[in-house]
Amino acid sequence: MIQSMTGFGKSEKQTEFGTLIVDLRSVNNRYCDMAIKLPEFLESHSEEIKRLLTEKLVRGRITLSVSLNGASEEIARLKLNLPAIRRFYDSLTELSAELGIDEKVKIEHLLMLTDLFDIHSPNIEAENVITILRETLESAIVALNEMRFREGNFLQKELELHLVMIGEKVSEIEDLFVSCKNGYFEKMKKNLKELCADLNFDTDRVLQEAALAAKRIDITEECERLRSHLHQFRKYMEDDEPSGKKMTFLLQEMNREAATIGSKSEEARIAHLVVLVKDEIEKIREQAQNIL
């Protein structure tokens, strides 16, 4: 079953320091690209977390946010920076006197001070939280992968519709080619005979050249390879291993076969069907960019 690279997972656990919240998101990307936001006391474990995410999620633009929220004053509290406030007040009062400004210093003036508050946070040791973080992160990864599989199941149904459409168009192309094949040969033979009517040419040689020319416009092999690619693509969709990159490569091959069919054919109806096939391949390619 295919997986989408789009997913979201969230998990929370209570600790003695507060609520540990893990928010994990993933979107499509050619590689495994990460943006990780951790509390300062957990930053020393960032490489370990990256390795875990790479192992479990494989590919995509992955965004991880970890926070520790507590409701009690023991977790984090604000304290007025009174010494700084007094210095700021005295400076404003002195400046008012110096410039002859009658306005008194008000609270809104003091609120302009950037160091108005001191934030006091407890000294949390990473080792006291990292084990719980691993468990919480694992839960978020499971939730994200479940969403990836759900999205992948939807994508698979959409892709199958496009594959069926391509198969139908290839069948129409084959039928048209078979019906026109003898006409191609007879037309070439007639043109060669008219061209060589007044010249002394070996008739067998002329017919041999006509047969070779007809073979050059034969699209049977291209149609067979295109059908083989459709079969292989379906096998990739059922594969348990990530197949997004292999699908992308196979789509390039499918597009190449379709282009060859179009360039070989002299029949306008076949050329029109080739356009429809390439349009379906492009629709699959757009979807495949989000497949793991």
Helical segment count: 8
Helix content: 55-70%
CATH topology of the largest domain: Butyryl-CoA Dehydrogenase, subunit A, domain 3
Provide the spatial order of strands within the biggest beta sheet.
1-2-4-3
Decide which structural class fits the backbone: alpha+beta
Please give the largest β-sheet.
4 strands, mixed
Tell me the number of strands. Answer: 6
Helix-strand pattern, N to C?
Answer: EEEHEEHHEHHHHH
Quick synopsis:
The protein is an alpha+beta fold and 292 residues long.
Notes on the structure:
The protein is α+β, with helices and mostly antiparallel strands. The protein has three domains: 7-71 and 125-147, 2-Layer Sandwich (Ribosomal Protein S5, domain 2); 77-120, no CATH class; 149-288, Butyryl-CoA Dehydrogenase, subunit A, domain 3 (Up-down Bundle). Helices cover 61% and strands 15% of the residues. It has helices at residues 46-57, 82-99, 107-110, 127-195, 203-216, 220-238, 244-264, 268-288; strands at 7-15, 18-27, 32-37, 60-69, 77-80, 117-120. The strands form two sheets. It has a four-stranded mixed β-sheet.
